[in-house]
Amino acid sequence: MIILLKDKVNEKQVTNLTNWLEHSGFQLHISKGAHQTIIGLIGDTSRVDMDLISSLDIVDRVQRIQEPFKSANRKFHEDDTVIDVGGVKIGGGHFQIIAGPCSVENREQIISVAQAVKRGGAGMLRGGAFKPRTSPYAFQGLHEKGLELLKEAKAATGLPIVTEIMEAAHLPLFEDVDVIQVGARNMQNFELLKELGQTRKTILLKRGLANTLEELLMSAEYIMAGGNNHVILCERGIRTFETYTRNTLDLSAVPVLRKLTHLPIVVDPSHGTGHAEYVPAMAMAATVAGADGLIIEVHNDPPHALCDGKQSLTPEQFEALAKRIEAVRPYAVR
Amino acid sequence: MIILLKDKVNEKQVTNLTNWLEHSGFQLHISKGAHQTIIGLIGDTSRVDMDLISSLDIVDRVQRIQEPFKSANRKFHEDDTVIDVGGVKIGGGHFQIIAGPCSVENREQIISVAQAVKRGGAGMLRGGAFKPRTSPYAFQGLHEKGLELLKEAKAATGLPIVTEIMEAAHLPLFEDVDVIQVGARNMQNFELLKELGQTRKTILLKRGLANTLEELLMSAEYIMAGGNNHVILCERGIRTFETYTRNTLDLSAVPVLRKLTHLPIVVDPSHGTGHAEYVPAMAMAATVAGADGLIIEVHNDPPHALCDGKQSLTPEQFEALAKRIEAVRPYAVR
Amino acid sequence: MIILLKDKVNEKQVTNLTNWLEHSGFQLHISKGAHQTIIGLIGDTSRVDMDLISSLDIVDRVQRIQEPFKSANRKFHEDDTVIDVGGVKIGGGHFQIIAGPCSVENREQIISVAQAVKRGGAGMLRGGAFKPRTSPYAFQGLHEKGLELLKEAKAATGLPIVTEIMEAAHLPLFEDVDVIQVGARNMQNFELLKELGQTRKTILLKRGLANTLEELLMSAEYIMAGGNNHVILCERGIRTFETYTRNTLDLSAVPVLRKLTHLPIVVDPSHGTGHAEYVPAMAMAATVAGADGLIIEVHNDPPHALCDGKQSLTPEQFEALAKRIEAVRPYAVR
Amino acid sequence: MIILLKDKVNEKQVTNLTNWLEHSGFQLHISKGAHQTIIGLIGDTSRVDMDLISSLDIVDRVQRIQEPFKSANRKFHEDDTVIDVGGVKIGGGHFQIIAGPCSVENREQIISVAQAVKRGGAGMLRGGAFKPRTSPYAFQGLHEKGLELLKEAKAATGLPIVTEIMEAAHLPLFEDVDVIQVGARNMQNFELLKELGQTRKTILLKRGLANTLEELLMSAEYIMAGGNNHVILCERGIRTFETYTRNTLDLSAVPVLRKLTHLPIVVDPSHGTGHAEYVPAMAMAATVAGADGLIIEVHNDPPHALCDGKQSLTPEQFEALAKRIEAVRPYAVR
Fold first, then answer.
1. How far apart are CA D269 and CA D286, in angstroms?
2. Is D36 exposed, middle or buried (0-12, 13-18, 19+ CB in 10 A)?
């Protein structure tokens, strides 16, 4: 971390600052120029409150050199993290497709989709029981009933289940859930992240619509700071001015995150594009870009899905796509 | 709402759709062109799930004509809503400045700031007890202790208190809080919004970093759908590519919201700009643009504030600014 | 196109409007509701000035159903356009890598890079002679001298050359250039586009930093409206809030443009990411997503490049990448 | 400027770099840490090519401390620049409203609007003769004829005229134009900026849709580097995800630019919002925020304007607004 002092600060203030920093455990390198003094901090600066220092009277600017995340940082954990979800591994060369409907609608639907995606090659089943919807008047999911149906689908297929949580108070309901998803709108719901850090569940953390990759990693850090290292990161598109797609899928997030962190990275081309017809191109591209997995919406009857039908593949389309993904995997950039 | 059907749909499918829509209580206007059929829906379409209809096989596109929000909509509630917070009114010509520190730090700090902002002309006291911070290693607020100190400051000054909630489970702690703030990162924490809809507390709802004004109104709708009409909307800056300011304060939100809704609108120039030196210009501009109030960070010792010191005014600066705001109020555009 | 009239318009105004529209050659479908009248226009609405109609007193809103671009529209030209650049074809199944340095620096540099990229498998040579730089104090290119050196490199290798134009007045200098590039900052330099429409040169049109895909196609339309159909579209990243990458490469532009237009589509992963280390992943991903080509920066000595060295591959890296691209091409989604 | 070297660079490379920097005329401050060496540069770094240095093998990162603009920088020119446009002054306490139609349409229109805005209190007349339009099929302006009509309007009213240039080759036509406008889409048309730098005309430089304030100042620097210091900066809204307004007017640009530069700053609330009904609130807000002027669209018959009628005020609305602006000016924050 580098601290740039303002022009013409008095000597005593500088000494006060440097004493305080040294007492805080940092090694300092001070460079005094004709006009500007620069202080370099050596040590674990991830725990330093930059806002605090940058608001000091004599400080002009503070610049980080190191990343502010630590547990998630590849620099301190060189090897890829491999997460084992009930025997299904993801990360470190293990690739998984998580597939299923946007919402769990009824027993027949979820079980038939689960069987179909398993046949198609999916390693896990997704399905929403609690649905975050912009409008209070839109379908909000089946809640507990939905979770029950997911468990039945798991029993019928053996697929681990992935489903979204919207509030820490619901945690007891998620005991039998294999992977708990934190949706884009809750990526910075820090209270929820802290509580998930207290569990040992695998967390699928989706990037927020307006969040940087650094903020995504800081949210992972919230979970990991609690002792839970089972975090899967998910790129699902960010909000831009473009309107032909629902969001702008930022695929470069894959190689960037690969460099910054050891955590597994999955891509959601369904929400990323919002249109079933664009899902295959983006799913294939994400695979080749080096993702550890994909999360794809599949519905037995997309036109009648209770949410997001427009972006869902049919089981047949999914099966065809999964084969192409399997074929292209050896070419992935890692 | 207008439904555009695809080219060459068969007659039977169209009849199925129109029958279903009529049974759902809508009056229809159907226009059959050589290539395209257009269905106009008359009725309360705010409760229609557009995604559902647009995903139907025969539907090309769905376009709303009416806004999807209803309780918050000025069309159905022409007069400005006036909210009475313990005798302090806001909205409908009543203007209030909400001022105070980013975080409650200790008794002396909060009480002295409260007295200072009261002297300066503030109508309510703000102060964070639960702080949403990007990093798990940054100061997170004094929690219950902070709420207690706020109550002491209220007792000392008579100012109603405004403070942020981060989780519905904390609601019991907020019983004596006058205005509960929902922060930008929780604007679409729908579970929290629903629970706040069950209370009769005044809610200060901040716009999310990447949320449209329509989404802000839909989040207000979540609260109002529960029966709680005491909602104050807050523009606090959106995320763009510009870096000289912390966020981009979207002041045009004031006249746009004024037209769309009857709810009071306040502006936060402190978070909107992130720099104390830009706060006066934006506070004055917001006042003239027609805001019903402002929320301004004030700290007795900004350089040593535990968070956001950079954007806090000193009590002296606040007092000077409040006078200028008072002077310019008669020129506000309404 | 659909025109929604305001509530309570008088009959005479409506008749005036409909008469005018019919005289303008449109077939109309009028649907009168209890509150709102809707007029549907059938005909070539790409030449209608929406702003003009939407500003009429009695009009509430105008919504396009058809795209506003015509020459570039796949609906009116189903087959992929194949462009022949001096014997090198692109589009309709023909895939080309355009490679070379950001800037032409000197004879030795451009000829050695040209030979290297040819060996590596590039089909065309890129190199900047006129460089758009944010700062007037940064290196601006060798201008005429740079164009001369490009021609020498073409003579030495047989590779067609691609280079950027910054002003229509420079056109005479570009007589021997095979593909004229319009950079992102000039995508809406309409005077330049019009002049290029008068030539029969192939134009490589890059998407602007804040431009939608529809605007990109409208800019192509400017060129095509002049009679020049040799347009190649280029996705090179848009500006967002993310800072780890120079821009956010919007790879979903590939399948979206594929659907909307018949023109060839290339992707620039060098500018899209801004870092050589992320280029391979994004180049591979773009190929699999169905791009017709790539444009990649290659420099014999990236650390000493006079511009954009950070994002340039070495000839060795390029050759290795080109082989991987060739291998993955059969898996491309089309 | 600070140069951060990579870990473990060899001594000889460092010496090469520091020698080169010293020969380039910089004074250096070198700070060697256990892991990282930091080089501080003192001198005129606005002419340093950051990209070049940051791409060197041994360099990890380069951080500017000083702004990269110099002629436009308030640090080197403390007093506000006052520009005299044919006797009408702007900047340094002189405030002007520039008003008129989007496009010049015919003699009667432009003269009657010119007389009306003069009566209303405008100091200059705006009107487009060359119009940048997204679609090649939309009205493009009257060109030379439009410029002639503007001159007639100037003769009739005495108001200096402001009109947009779209290509350097058109410059001879602009000889009698008082203020040449560079539109948002041409803000980084560097060839045009360079040619304008060779004139001594006043240039009204509009911020691009996706350009930072630093880039706006760098574009001003292009003009000033040519010796033309008569530059007026214009905030006219940036592109974001919000759709209720045409653009997002970034009013905080006013105090930020005020601090960074000595050039006059005007605000365009017409393009900034896109709706006449929001213009008064934003015009008043911009005035109070400290702008040196406003540019407002006024049309005698907005519903029949050939472009942007939706955002134009009538002469009566303009006159009423100008009076309110005059009244609020004493409260402006400077």
1. 8
2. buried
Q: Mean pLDDT lowest for which of A279-293, B138-152, D6-20?
A: D6-20
The band of D100, judged by pLDDT with boundaries at 50, 70 and 90, is very high
Residue of A121, A120, A201, A125 lying closest to A156 (CA atoms): A125
Provide the token pair at D183: 């539109």
Which pairs count as long-range contacts for A40-43, CB under 8 Å and 24+ apart, including other chains?
A40/A1, A40/A2, A40/A3, A40/D31, A40/D33, A40/D36, A40/D38, A41/A1, A41/A2, A41/A3, A42/D33, A42/D34, A42/D35, A42/D36
Q: What pLDDT sits at residue D186?
A: 97
Give how far D179 is from chain A: nearest CA, Å. Answer: 32
Range list of H helices, chain C: 11-23, 50-54, 107-120, 144-157, 190-197, 213-225, 253-260, 269-273, 279-288, 315-328
- The pLDDT, as a whole number, for residue B213 is 98
Range among A33-42, B83-92, B299-308, C303-312 with highest mean pLDDT value: B83-92
Q: Which CATH superfamily is domain A74-331 in?
A: Aldolase class I (3.20.20.70)
C-chain residues within 8 Å CB-CB of A321?
none
Tell me the pLDDT of chain C averaged across its residues: 92
pLDDT on residue D34? 59
As a whole number of angstroms, the distance between CA D132 and CA D141 comes to 9
Please give the single-letter amino acid code of residue D119. Answer: R
Question: Are the CB atoms for A51 and B308 separated by under 8 Å?
Answer: yes
Which pLDDT score is estimated for A33? 64
Q: Distance between CA C1 and CA C46 in Å, rounded?
A: 9
3-state secondary structure of D79: coil
What are the start-end ranges of the E strands in chain B? 2-5, 27-32, 37-42, 59-63, 83-85, 88-90, 96-100, 124-126, 161-165, 179-182, 202-206, 231-235, 265-267, 293-297
Contact B285 D251 (CB under 8 A): yes
What residues of B are in contact with residue D210 (Cβ under 8 Å)?
241
Q: What is the pLDDT of residues D51-76, one digit of tens each?
A: 778 777 788 878 776 788 999 999 88
Q: How large is the average pLDDT for residues C200-205?
A: 98
Chain C nearest CA to B55, separation (Å): 17
User: Do C136 and D221 lie within an 8 Å CB cutoff?
Assistant: yes
The CATH-assigned architecture of domain D2-63 is 2-Layer Sandwich (3.30)
**Which pLDDT tens digit goes with each residue over B10-60?**
888 888 888 888 887 788 877 776 566 778 777 777 777 777 787 777 888
Residue A152 three-state SS: helix
Gap between the Cα atoms of C98 and C91, Å rounded: 13
If pLDDT is split at 50, 70 and 90, which confidence band does C253 have?
very high
The full set of domain ranges for chain A reads: 2-63, 74-331
Two domains, one topology: B2-63 and B74-331? no
Among candidates A38, A63, A65 on the partner chain, residue whose Cβ is nearest the Cβ of D40: A38
